[in-house]
Amino acid sequence: MIPYHSLHDAEIALGRNLTFAETLWFNYSATKSDYFLFCHNILFLFLIFSLVPLPLVFLEIKRLYPFDSYKIQPKVRLSLHEMLNCYKDVMVMFFLVVGPLQLVSYPSIKMIGIRAGLPLPSGWEILSQLVVYFLVEDYTNYWIHRFLHNKWGYEKIHRVHHEYQAPIGFAAPYAHWAEILILGIPSFLGPALAPGHMITFWLWIALRQVEAIDTHSGYDFPWNPTKYIPFYGGSEHHDYHHYVGGQSQSNFASVFTYCDYIYGTDKGFRYQKKILRNLKEDLTNGAAQNGGSFDAQDYNKSE
Fold first, then answer.
1. How many CA atoms lie within 13 A of 242 on its CB side?
2. Closest listed residue to residue 244, CA positions, set 144, 140, 154, 175
3. For residues 226 and 134, what is the distance between their CA atoms, to the nearest angstrom?
4. How many angstroms separate the CA atoms of 129 and 120, rounded?
5. pTM of the model
6. What is each CA distance from 122 to 9, 40, 204, 303, in whole angstroms?
């Protein structure tokens, strides 16, 4: 709770006028406890899990051109009933595991120094902390993910997440309850190392889940703005991991590709891309020699 009784008191304490954002934050949070503000994460996660995958559900059902040409595994289709069952299972875990975990984890957030008062962090501070959070989570998640692909980890825990060989947006948080708990550790490490404001923490939790839905979308859109993020894996990178399945020893990274490259766990993925690229070039050259044309999107549909 902000320790000021009025905007004037806050401006005196800070020695300056409040920014517009700080004024909004004061008006909203001044009478609310830090615990109540922290619990906003539950609402944000519910909305993200429920709403963000909906456009992907629509595309999966309608198969609209040209969007359908960007589906990575076009031969695998899920019905609306199957996707709703996935959402139902995700919501069961949300109310039984994710929500309660948020409710009881506040003391650890308070302990590491996440603050909810004034002043608000600058845009650069938020951005730099989010970069740290993503890098720390990505590296830690990589090794936990590799562990979950050993015989015991996969059969006892991780196989649940791999029930969807061709992932969909709703399947991003679809996992065994133990995996949800285990993967909460990497998400917590970044804020523990570089604690910031509650707003930054909200953004981190929200963006990480949106990113997970993006990588599980099943579609590789060329206009996706994440393609401009260096070393970002995206849906194509993670879709291959699901496509190979339980015996996969490739593409473990959750966000970026550098760990897979450094530790050699993307060789199968890069080899497949090379083979497909060479095959497309051969087909294109053959079609040109025969006076025809070759459409790479039509080729992808046949895969």
1. 25
2. 154
3. 14
4. 14
5. 0.89
6. 21, 21, 15, 48
Q: What DSSP designation does 120 have?
A: P
DSSP character string of 48-69: HHHHTTHHHHHHHHH--TTGGG
The alpha carbon of residue 85 and the mean position of all alpha carbons in its chain are separated, in whole angstroms, by: 21
Give the burial string for 85-101 (b: 16+ CB within 10 Å, else e).
ebbebbbebbeebbbeb
> What count of Cα atoms within 13 Å lies in the side-chain half-sphere of residue 253?
26
The answer to whether residues 144 and 183 touch, using CB atoms and an 8 Å cutoff, is yes
Q: Tokens at residue 14, please?
A: 């800070």
Q: How far is CA 202 from the centre of its chain?
A: 14
Q: Cβ distance 255 to 211 under 8 Å?
A: yes
Count the Cβ atoms, other than its own, within 10 Å of residue 295.
11
| pLDDT per residue as tens digits for the range 73-124 | 988 889 999 999 999 999 999 999 999 999 999 999 999 999 999 999 999 9
Q: Nearest 5°: phi and psi at 3?
A: -85, 40
Calpha distance 266→66 (Å, rounded): 29
From 112, 102, 118, select the one nearest 35 (Cα to Cα): 102
The C-alpha atoms of residue 62 and residue 59 are separated, in whole angstroms, by: 5
Which residue's structure tokens are 């699901």?
A: 242
Instruction: Map tokens 């990480």 to a residue.
Output: 208
CA distances, 22 to each of 25, 195, 204 (Å): 5, 19, 19
* Token pair for 183: 């993967």
Q: What is the pLDDT of residues 206-241, one digit of tens each?
A: 999 999 999 999 999 999 999 999 999 999 999 999
d(CA 119, CA 126): 13
Q: CA-CA distances (angstroms) from residue 281 to 111, 183, 284, 295?
A: 57, 41, 5, 11
